[in-house]
Design goal:
- This protein has 9 helices and 10 strands.
- By secondary structure, it is of the alpha/beta class.
- The strands form 2 sheets. It has a 6-stranded mixed sheet. It has a 4-stranded parallel sheet with strand order 5-4-3-6, sandwiched between helices.
- Helix 3 links the parallel strand 4 and strand 5.
- Helix 1 crosses helix 5.
- The longest helix is centred in the C-terminal third of the chain and has 16 residues.
- It starts with 13 loop residues before the first strand and ends in a 14-residue tail after the last strand.
- Pathway: Amino-acid biosynthesis; L-cysteine biosynthesis; L-cysteine from L-serine: step 2/2.
- This is Cysteine synthase.
- Keywords: Amino-acid biosynthesis, Cysteine biosynthesis, Pyridoxal phosphate, Transferase.
């Protein structure tokens, strides 16, 4: 029995991929972050950013919060802000799926849609401009240490414990980079031999949740030294693997999860032996109005 929906954040399942890997000497495990109450890995960071901000006094209940998001962080922030009775405005490109917008509004957030051509960078610019005007407090997931520390405190220890310390490689898509930074920091403290593999889109590929940031927008929490290797995936590879996850593994996830899994499968086929863990960062239901599953 739980006292709050917040108590359901984390401790997500780690499931062995049944048939994606042909290499008999390598095991691939998928961490199902869609099992979080808000439906994604971002519940962890959203809770830690808001709770830590409240505990320090950086955030008060009479403030207006604002944050730019591509989707999952916004949904998580809307859910957590509602629980703590906080006023939050979320900014995202107008080509975001309707499921994301409606879910944020269902949790009580105000949603502002910016020009699609500007992408998430345009949404970030809008949010920063409003903050500079003095009307809002911005959590700034891209520069907020509470983002990556959420994964240092929870995701990393869960993976280490669930694999009994046998993990050899950790694979994660890179967006804000909070997941990979925090998990890397913890796992490397346990064993310097654990290899951290980041996943980025190939040039011109558009994969929601995975970014190759222009230098001016590179997340300030990102430390390249904490990533041993970066693999790139195409839009087609991400889509194909997302569909395979649903049809072959029974794992209904989004496109960034497909991208990370595609990279993880490639990695598994290159290794002589190992235990690979890859993040499945969300659920597929927030992509149904897109052409992902057509």
């Amino acid at each position: 029995m739980k006292n709050s929906i917040i108590d359901l954040i984390g401790n997500t399942p780690l499931v062995k991929a049944a048939g994606l890997v042909k290499n008999p000497n390598v095991e691939l495990y998928l961490k199902l972050e869609g099992q979080n109450p808000g439906g994604s890995v971002k519940d962890r960071a959203a809770y830690n950013m808001i709770k830590s901000g409240l505990d320090r006094g950086d955030i008060t209940t009479d403030m207006k919060l604002i944050e730019a998001t591509s989707g999952n962080t916004g949904i998580a922030l809307a859910m957590i802000a509602g629980i703590f009775k906080l006023n939050i405005e979320l900014v995202m490109p107008e080509n975001s799926t309707i499921e994301r917008v409606q879910t944020m509004r269902a949790y009580g957030a105000k949603v502002i849609l910016t020009d699609a051509d500007g992408g998430i960078e345009g949404a970030r610019d809008y949010a920063e401009e409003r903050m500079k005007q003095g009307d809002y407090f911005m959590l700034n997931q891209f520069a907020n240490d509470d983002n990556w520390q959420a994964h240092y405190k929870t995701t990393g220890p869960e993976i280490w414990n669930d694999t009994h310390g046998k993990i050899t490689h950790f694979v994660s898509s890179m967006g804000t980079t909070g997941t990979i930074m925090g998990t890397s920091t913890f796992l490397k403290e346990q064993s310097k031999d654990v290899q951290i593999v980041g996943v980025q889109p190939k040039d011109e590929a558009r994969i929601p949740g995975i970014r190759k940031w222009p230098e001016a927008y590179l997340p300030k929490i990102f430390n390249r030294d904490k990533v041993d290797r970066i693999l790139e995936v195409s839009e087609e590879e991400a889509k194909v693997m997302t569909v395979r996850l649903a049809k072959e593994e029974g794992i209904f996830a989004g496109m960034s999860s497909g991208g990370a899994t595609a990279a993880a499968v490639k990695l598994c086929e290159q290794l002589e032996e190992g235990l690979v863990v890859s993040i499945v960062c969300d659920r597929g239901d927030r992509y149904l109005s897109s052409d992902l599953f057509d």
